[in-house]
Amino acid sequence: MADADIDCRGLKCPEPVLKTRKALAEGAGNFTVLVDNETARDNVSRFARTSGCRVEVSDTDGGFLIAITPAAGNAECSGDEVPIGCDSVTGTVIFISSDEIGTGEHELGATLMKSFIYAAAEADDSLSTMIFMNSGVRLVTEKDETVANLSRIADRGVDILVCGTCLDYYGLTERLKVGRVSNMYEIQSALISAPKLVCI
Amino acid sequence: MGPGDLEKILSAIPEESAPELLSSLRTGEDAGVYQISKGLAIVQTVDFFPPIVDDPYTFGQITAANALSDVYAMGGRPITALNIVAFPCGIDLQVLEKILLGGHDKIHEAGAVIVGGHTIDDDELKYGLAVTGLVDPAKMTTITGARPGDVLVLTKPIGTGILATALKAGLLTEEEMGEAVASMRALNREAADTLNRYRVNACTDVTGFGLVGHLYEMANAGGISAELWAGDVPLFERTLEMASMGMVPEGKKRNFEYAKNVDLRTKKEDALILECLYDPQTSGGLLASVESSDADSALEELRVGPCPRAAVVGTVSEGPGGAIIIIHGRSG
Questions:
Q1: Domain check: are B282 and B175 in the same one?
Q2: Helix axes A38-50, A15-25, angle to 10 degrees
């Protein structure tokens, strides 16, 4: 029997995921989780990957041993993309949940959004984070013009968070050109902790 | 219990046969149908489970809507219901009162009456109902009868199992799963009424065996094969996100193993959607096999009426019976 840091044998879903999540939130380094069924194996692995961790699964005689390596360079938050309880946002946060601005003619909405991103790239302000959700993820994947301007913004050190679920939903995961994949925990935390939040 | 185990056990029990018995346990029919006179049969069904939401009144409503659903799936009209309650000592009796009130209100919304019930002590709270309905055997819709060329229509989105798991884990509040809660407590009556105005060759409700599990039963019972379009299946808000957070309930695996004859031709990015397609549902929508020439009008009427998120999710083709192909979307 392999030694594991967290023994989740005999626990029903979602308990194994919650124990893994707690370990990440508490800043654990590399750790292992032992589970005794395939559902728990799949759920814990998927949760850890969604949270930005590296995951390796091996069979043991008592079930499956899941080795989790939290993303590097974030000792405090450890889980990196699960910064539960970490107030990381210091400047303005812009939240974009559509690929156009306002409701009306789509063509106009898309043009306005393009201009807004251009203006944001030209401005030099306290912007610290941009968040892209729902059809907003098109702006960081398939729309070349906004991708170019957002790259300029990213070069200034602005953190660009892109909703992984949304990329997945639109089949754009492989086409992310600027920013990094994030999840609802990090996004929720950024929105809540933002000193100034702008929703487009 | 998983569908595979259930099938195994039932195969060991002698099959019922009576001239009045119009349904069969073997085909995975939603409810038992027993003819009592010419043009009239009773439809009987029972369902109970532990709480899936925190609010007791809502839980009562959802449970009743779920129990009634089997009657609607067969084109019947519910008339009476019996409560089934397992209740632990020490829980505030007001909780039970609210659950029963939720059940009562939903049964009355359906035009039926509660005629009694039974209560036992148990470690875990459970509530359910046995429902009786009436149906004209000539107009009954069953799980058998899907025909090659039919279009598969689903009336409610998928994802209640994943969302209920996330609720249990504290990743979601009941308000945040509001769309799914509203859907679970909604009767399938109007959906069934709408569908019954069109040529529906087979119908079932999507519950514990998941969308694929119930489609598999329909395909088996009808001796046909089916194509399911993963990307076209409507999902409740936040279902994919919660699946990506590892909130898939254990029933998914049982459902996955049950539907043996499935050919997965999906794309890599469909992995999360697939989890949802096997997700056990509570008070899910109707899955109807509709004549293709009627499908557009039926869908339109469902969408502007009781089921705004109804969708065409696949097609039916010639045997082999029970074979299912899951592809990325309508266009391949």
A1: yes
A2: 30
Beta bridge partners of A95: A131, A199
Residue B162 — pLDDT band, cuts 50, 70, 90? very high
Are B208 and B305 members of one domain? yes
- Check whether the bond before B19 is cis (ω within 30° of 0): no
State the distance between the two ends of chain B, measured CA to CA, in whole angstroms.
34
Assess whether B58 and B129 both reside in one domain. yes
Give the strand order in the sheet containing A196-199.
Answer: A180-182, A159-163, A127-132, A92-96, A196-199
Q: Is the pTM of this model over 0.90?
A: no
From the list A18, A20, A39, which residue is nearest B248 (CB)?
Answer: A39
> What CA–CA distance (Å, rounded) separates B29 from B12?
18
At residue A73 the predicted structure's pLDDT band, cuts being 50, 70 and 90, is very low
Query: Does B248 sit within 8 Å of A42, measured CB to CB?
Result: yes
Q: ipTM of this complex > 0.85?
A: no
3-class SS at B25?
helix
Q: How many domains in chain B?
A: 2
> In B, which residues are within 8 Å of A189 by CB distance?
none
Q: Are A103 and A62 in contact (CB under 8 A)?
A: no
Structural domain including B120 reads: 31-139
Which residues are paired to B24 by β-bridges? none
**Total residue count of chain A as it appears in this document:** 200
The CA distance from B65 to B284, in Å, is: 9
- End-to-end, the C-alpha distance of chain A in Å comes to 53
Sorted by where each starts, the structural domains of chain A and their CATH numbers stand as 6-69 (3.30.110.40), 92-199 (3.40.1260.10)
Q: What is the mean pLDDT of residues A43-62?
A: 90
Confidence of residue A72 (pLDDT cuts 50, 70, 90): low
Are B235 and B319 part of one and the same domain?
yes
Q: Which residues of chain B approach chain A closer than 8 Å at the C-beta?
A: 165-166, 168-170, 231, 240-241, 243-250, 252-253, 267, 269, 272
Pairing relation of β-strands B262-265 and B324-327? parallel
